[in-house]
User: Fold these one by one.
Assistant:
Number 1:
Amino acid sequence: MHSDSVGRAVQIGSFVGTPTVLSLTVISANVQLQPYKRYRLWASANCFFQFGTSNAVTATGNSHPLWGGLDALHGTDGTNIWLAAVVPTGTGTLYISEIDTDTA
């Protein structure tokens, strides 16, 4: 749930299945997602993520930042369906939940 400008809850969709879990280290890890879907990304630690067209995609410190404990919403297109993520130090976990926005 998210809130609108006056603090009311706004439903953006419903979760589909169980989250995909990606274990993160200082070495980029990746996972293949489905095309034309929407996802909620939630990390247990600060990390960086990058989408690409193949399993060769890597995330670096110059990729999109995602702060631990905050959500990011992302939609895939027909080709950029590989998601890579990395933490700058230590370890972490990235939870990737598919969202069905047609049920909102």
Number 2:
Amino acid sequence: MTHDPQLTEFVAPVVLMARDFLPRDSLELGVLHGFCLDAAKDHAPHMLRFLASVDSLETLASALGQLPRIIVAADCKGASWQFVREQEQIGREAGSPD
């Protein structure tokens, strides 16, 4: 997978918004992709062409993988992603199980 630091910087606040406002613990990659497309329309129109491309899902999964403090892959294929909530992060940092 390709890692694009610019995409990671763009994706992080989108993931934080989704985590903070949605009651769900996890989301499918396609749903996260849709949130990114919506955010790009308003805040990063220069990313719209890329996000509409076939390659964007793989690159988005790579960008999400760079954000383990806020989201982690929920399956080995990267099709589903689980939010890291504050309590989970505190437990990980302390070395205790979730």
Number 3:
Amino acid sequence: MTSTEEALNEAVADAKLAKSAVTAADGKKAQAAAELDAMKALTVVGVANAAAVAAQAHAAHAGPVDALEDKATKLQVQAEVAREKADTLKATGVERIAHAQRVAAAAVMNAETLYDETLTDIENGVRSVMGV
């Protein structure tokens, strides 16, 4: 039995006891005091009932909410893993682009050197033919 159910049962018992006291009370003052006690006990019963309803509502909805929170946590973990993979791929891509740029620059330099050497060879060949 839960503490809410125990409180409800105790409040109901107190209300029954107070109602019995009203019936058995002698005189107006004693009857008024007994009625006041009965109203207080009924108020406690009402509060206990409200607490029981709230506890039942919470219990009914706590499971689905907990499941959604668990799912959200799992999705967050998956998102973090995906972000790390994306960051790694981006870093790898940046590194590959930089490498390709270095290779391209070296190829351009080699082509320019070959071009200059070829022009020099052509000039030397022309000079040789012309006798210069």
